[in-house]
Amino acid sequence: MPVNIQKYDPGLVAQMRIKILVYGEPGVGKTVYASTAPKPLFIDTEKGMASIPKKLDFVSINNFEEFNELLRDIVENPEPYKKYETLVVDSVSELQRRSLDTILNQAVKDNISRDPNLVTFADWGKNTQEMRRALRLLRDLGDKFNIVLTALSKEVETDGQLKERPDLTPALFGSLNSYVDVMGYLLAKADEKMEITRYLIFTNTEKFFAKTRIVVPKIIKDPNWDKFAKSLGKEEKDENKG
Question: Terminal CA-to-CA distance of the chain, rounded, Å?
Fold first, then answer.
């Protein structure tokens, strides 16, 4: 089979499908931000659709096998999914917990004397491998869809300082970091009148973990997908300051 050599043009980044992870505290607006992506299909693991102010299609995921079944269906039966441009997983933090629940439930079935609340190193290892396989498959769908992942945040100690990063196990966080193009922290601030301004931060700082392999602004104020998409491949602008 001949080798298929392709040319990459960084000037066309705004036309590419993007894989992004947005993380932050509960209620900060991650789900609403994800809903602004073009023609989304929500994969809802948190039962959090009530926060979205518009009609859209979603699949409610009750366990990890349902998530895997959905991905297989998208791959093997693509026709019903061609009307969507974006797949949203809300959230990957809860998806990892559902994977662990499945593993523990099976362990108790296999050994009725097993403590259902005891998580072993082997359980965590299996959980990481299951999540990696599923998220790699999702990543590989990125040539057909934008991929938007949301995650809760948690504070961890890094080099003696506390820093926010996605609420995932360290092993999965390391893998997922390589699967996405952009990872940003969503922050909400209230002024003296209690009016809320949101900031999507793409700069890795001493307080927040972030990454990008494409050119995006350091911060997008009151973000939505349209602002994000229009900023791809462009230099930082003063309008984002504030």
Answer: 54
Distance CA(174)–CA(198), nearest Å, equals: 26
Query: What is the signed CA dihedral for 225, 226, 229, 233, rounded to 10 degrees?
Result: -130
Its pTM stands at 0.86
**Whose CA is closest to 207, among 152, 156, 151, 149?**
156
Q: Are 100 and 127 in contact (CB under 8 A)?
A: yes
The whole-angstrom separation of Cα 210 and Cα 163 is 11
Q: Domain ranges in the chain? A: 17-186
Confidence label for 37 from pLDDT (cuts 50, 70 and 90) = very high
Domain 17-186: give its CATH superfamily: P-loop containing nucleotide triphosphate hydrolases (3.40.50.300)
> Which one-letter amino acid corresponds to residue 15?
Q
Q: Which of 9, 31, 49 is nearest to 225 (CA)?
A: 31
Helix (H, G, I), strand (E, B) or coil at 109: helix
Of the CA atoms within 13 Å of residue 92, those in its CB half-sphere come to 34
Strand partners, 185: 23, 201
Of 132, 32, 25, 130, nearest to 88 (Cα)? 32
Give the tens place of pLDDT for each residue, 96-111.
Answer: 999 999 999 888 888 8
Q: In sequence order, which residues have a C-beta less than 8 Å from that of residue 2 and are 6 or more positions away?
A: none
Residue 14 has pLDDT above 50, yes or no: no
CA distance 12 to 225: 17
Predicted local confidence at residue 125, as pLDDT: 92
